[in-house]
Design a protein that fits this description.
The complex is a heterodimer of chains A (about 120) and B (about 220).
Chain A lengths: L8 H5 L1 H7 L16 E4 L9 H9 L4 E2 H8 L3 H13 L3 E4 L13 H12 L2
Antiparallel strand pairs in A: 1-2, 1-3
Helix pairs in contact in A: 4-5
Chain B lengths: L1 H5 L10 E9 L5 H8 L5 E9 L14 E13 L4 E9 L8 H5 L4 E7 L7 H10 L3 E6 L8 H8 L7 E4 L4 H34 L11
Parallel strand pairs in B: 1-4, 1-5, 5-6, 6-7
Antiparallel strand pairs in B: 2-3, 3-4
Helix pairs in contact in B: 2-6
């Protein structure tokens, strides 16, 4: 609240750059990537690779959530999702999607909730 | 960028299941404070933008324009065990945020509505929207040292259903914030068990004309 917001390339100042990052696309079938899908790199960054792709691969040596990638790269979630789609399509990353069942009334199963409770109580 | 990466604690290699809880509340109510008090990482922030084309907007220059909705939110992280990681999101409760709810927060376990008892009206909209989206929630009153209200007064002011838990907290305090999260998950657990029971009863009712109670089907 006290610190000035960082300039965000995704919002006002560089829309052209965003289109470059995503090859001109503004949407894709990237909704498969949840905010908390954990991304794991399947290869090392290669010379000549788009710098954001290389940054994602370095960041994801260990599992890293989509939203953490977005915050670290200072790019909107939607843009990151599109780049992740590209990396997934070319086999450079794998994705561990959330297992929480999206049932009609949106209540998670009791087993999952019990695991969460154990984890929280151990904090 | 490198510094941001280096102070980010990496997850265990076995982590494979991300979970979400959202803390919703008005400006200055303490969402970030609560996230920070329980998070294992310094809270990070990011944003999402949704463009909506073809809506009526002020059109001063005669050019067809698009409206875009940008929502910033912050988040923290709690490693629950070797496989599960809970992400805690602090999200603004204002109107434009709800356009992005499904895109950002579908699959959320549940929500905490964080309220300042001096500004209860700020929470009405968030509660209404959570009910609309069918997202289970609890209400936590962050202690700002304001005048004390009874639970009944707060429930009435928020028009809160009796089965929604209402707790007090100090968002700056780790154990207090942890208690809020546990209260939410216990509430979800109770709802989930009740649902399983109802589903069992409905199934039993459909399978046999005489099986009116779950006990009789065992």
């Amino acid at each position: 609240m006290t610190s000035a917001p960082r300039p965000r390339p995704g919002r006002d100042d560089a829309p052209d750059r965003l289109y470059t990052l995503t090859g001109g696309r503004s949407r894709s079938g990237s909704d498969a990537f949840d905010l908390v899908t954990l991304v794991v790199a399947e290869c090392d960054p290669a010379p000549g690779m788009q710098s954001e792709h290389a940054a994602i691969l370095r960041m994801c040596e260990r599992p890293t959530a989509v939203v953490e990638i977005s915050a670290t790269l200072n790019l909107p979630v939607g843009i990151v999702r599109i780049m992740l789609c590209d990396l997934l399509d070319t086999g450079r990353i794998s994705a561990r999607h959330p297992r929480t069942a999206r049932v009609a009334d949106r209540l998670p199963d009791t087993d999952t909730l019990e695991q969460v409770l154990v984890g929280l109580r151990n904090l | 960028m490198d510094s941001a990466i280096s102070d980010r604690a990496a997850l265990q290699a076995t982590a494979d299941n991300g979970l979400k809880i959202v803390v919703v509340g008005g400006f200055g109510v303490g969402k970030t404070t609560m996230v920070r008090s329980v998070s294992e990482i310094r809270p990070l922030n990011t944003e999402e933008t949704m463009t909506r084309a073809g809506e009526a907007v002020d059109d001063l220059d005669g050019v067809q324009s698009k409206t875009s909705t940008t929502v910033a939110f912050d988040f923290g992280r709690i490693t629950l065990d070797a496989r599960s990681v809970l992400y805690l999101f602090g999200a603004p409760g204002q109107e434009r945020f709800w356009f992005l709810w499904d895109r950002l927060f579908s699959g959320t376990l549940g929500a905490v509505v964080l309220v300042d008892t001096r500004r209860l009206a700020d929470s009405w909209y968030a509660i209404d929207r959570l009910e609309h989206h069918g997202t289970p929630f609890i209400v936590a009153c962050n202690d700002f040292g304001g005048p004390l209200h009874t639970e009944q007064q707060i429930r009435e002011a928020l028009d809160l259903s009796p089965d929604v838990p209402l707790v007090e907290c100090d968002a700056r305090d780790r154990s207090s914030s942890k208690y809020v999260l546990i209260t939410l998950v216990e509430h979800l657990h109770a709802l989930s068990e009740a649902r399983a029971k109802n589903a069992g009863a409905a199934l039993a009712g459909g399978q046999g004309a005489t099986a009116m109670t779950p006990e009789r089907t065992l």
